[in-house]
């Protein structure tokens, strides 16, 4: 989707419309792009950010309960201690009526470091209703292979990347998304925005990739919904055929 800069109400309304259409088309796990309600609205960050229990997540929790689905994305979080605010890029996963996990972006890109604090935890999120683990990473974190490998080693069944990757890095985006899937032999859902912000333009290019690194569905630079079934049995087959994990030499990696 295109994320309109600082337009929280409009962005949420559009996201929910697209989410409803995805559910009608058979989607179970819905992935929204990075900070999908606001964009990087630094100039109004105190107004755009949300404190727990997060009004946006409350609405998504209700949506997921009504539609019996999971929804994944990120919002700007604010924590306040002694009247001093701290902001995070808060990745979330809600499923069938409750918040089942979060991931605060740990690797901040350039200007983000002036506004956000970094998270300090990287672990998979378990989806109870579907019986699968999600490995969630946010945008710049796609460039760090250690993250997806850690998530895979800890049992992630599906890697999910939510992003605001801009032009001219479209080849970088696609190459890294494929590499993270291939090297970890894991399905990968990579969701990027389209449109523009005050300083950048975005190419979209969202992808659904299987455990062999085959592209199952791919978006262009227009707003769209892509849907594809993910066969988790293929992960087992791929890993038994090419035994990357069994052949690792952890003694050499320290």
Show the helix and strand layout.
Elements: H1 8-24, E1 29-31, H2 45-48, H3 55-67, E2 70-81, E3 84-95, E4 98-104, E5 125-127, E6 132-138, H4 145-153, E7 158-163, H5 170-184, E8 188-192, E9 194-196, E10 201-203, E11 207-209, E12 215-218, H6 233-241
Parallel strand pairs: 1-2, 6-7, 7-8
Antiparallel strand pairs: 2-3, 3-4, 5-6, 8-11, 9-10, 11-12
Order of helices and strands: HEHHEEEEEHEHEEEEEH
End-to-end span in angstroms? Answer: 41 Å
Structure annotation, total helices: 6
List the domain count as a whole number. Answer: 1
Q: Tell me roughly what share of residues is in helical segments.
A: 25-40%
User: Using DSSP, what is the number of strands?
Assistant: 12
Instruction: Name the shape in a single word.
Output: globular
CATH class: Alpha Beta
Mean pLDDT value: 97
Radius of gyration: 17 Å
CATH superfamily heading: Carbon-nitrogen hydrolase
Unreliable stretches, pLDDT < 50, 5 or more residues? none
Would you identify the CATH architecture? 4-Layer Sandwich
Let me know the largest β-sheet. Answer: 6 strands, mixed
> Strand sequence of the main sheet, in spatial order?
5-6-7-8-11-12
Percent strand equals 25-35%
Structural class: alpha/beta
What name is given to the CATH topology? Nitrilase/N-carbamoyl-D-aminoacid amidohydrolase
């Amino acid at each position: 989707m295109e994320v309109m800069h600082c337009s929280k109400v409009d962005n949420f309304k559009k996201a929910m419309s697209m989410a409803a259409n995805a559910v009608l088309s058979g989607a179970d796990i819905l992935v929204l792009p990075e900070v999908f309600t606001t964009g990087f609205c630094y100039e109004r960050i105190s107004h755009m950010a949300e404190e727990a229990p997060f009004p946006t997540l409350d609405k998504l929790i209700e949506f997921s309960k009504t539609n019996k689905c999971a929804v994944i994305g990120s919002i700007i979080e604010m924590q306040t201690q002694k009247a001093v605010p701290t902001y995070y890029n808060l990745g979330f996963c809600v499923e069938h009526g409750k918040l089942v996990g979060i991931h605060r972006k740990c690797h901040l890109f350039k200007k983000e470091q002036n506004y956000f604090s970094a998270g300090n935890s990287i672990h998979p999120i378990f989806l109870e209703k579907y019986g699968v683990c999600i490995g969630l990473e946010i945008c710049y974190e796609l460039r760090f292979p250690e993250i997806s490998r850690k998530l895979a080693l800890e049992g992630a069944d599906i890697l999910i990347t939510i992003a605001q990757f801009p032009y001219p890095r479209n080849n970088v985006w696609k190459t890294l998304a494929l590499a993270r899937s291939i090297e970890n032999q894991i399905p990968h859902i990579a969701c990027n925005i389209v449109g523009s912000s005050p300083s950048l333009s975005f190419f979209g290019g969202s992808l659904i990739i299987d455990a062999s690194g085959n592209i199952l569905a791919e978006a262009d630079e227009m707003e769209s919904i892509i849907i594809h079934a993910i066969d988790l049995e293929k992960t087992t087959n791929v890993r038994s055929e090419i035994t990357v994990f069994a052949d690792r030499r952890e003694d050499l990696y320290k």
